[in-house]
Amino acid sequence: MSWNDIDQANLNAAGRLYEANSIRLGAEQYDSEFRCRPSTLYKPKLFPEGNMWCAMFGENMPEGVCGFGETPDKAMLDFDREWHKPLKSNK
After folding, report:
1. Residue 61 main-chain phi, psi, to 5 deg
2. CA–CA separation, 82 vs 70, rounded Å?
3. How far apart (Å, rounded) are the C-alpha atoms in residues 49 and 69?
4. β-strand partners of 67
5. What is the pLDDT of residue 49?
């Protein structure tokens, strides 16, 4: 085995270690962002509403925060967007 082979093996191992570390960091970031989502923190009710899914926090739709989507995941993502919108004025 030559020094070139050893250098190449070290580079290959370093590359695999870098890839594994990148995957781990990406998973940690996703987990952190997931735990901070309003739908994760406040756990809205999830139920079918017509041909859509509804994620609702509150006693009813007019007074609560609601998100809608074709799938439960899309409803939760819409809920997260709606959570950050300001209250609408009655004017």
Report:
1. -65, -45
2. 16
3. 10
4. 55
5. 96
pLDDT band at 88 (very low <50, low <70, confident <90, very high): confident
| pTM (two decimals) | 0.63
Tokens of 40: 């994760």
Q: What is the pLDDT of residues 32-51, one digit of tens each?
A: 565 789 999 999 999 999 99
d(CA 39, CA 72): 11
Q: Do 37 and 80 contact (CB within 8 A), yes or no?
A: yes
SS3 48: strand
Residue 27: is its pLDDT beyond 60? no
What is the full DSSP assignment across 32-67? HHHHHSHHHHH--EEEEETTEEEEEESSSTTTSEEE
Q: In the structure encoding, which two tokens stand for residue 17, read together?
A: 């270690």
Residue with tokens 């609560």: 64
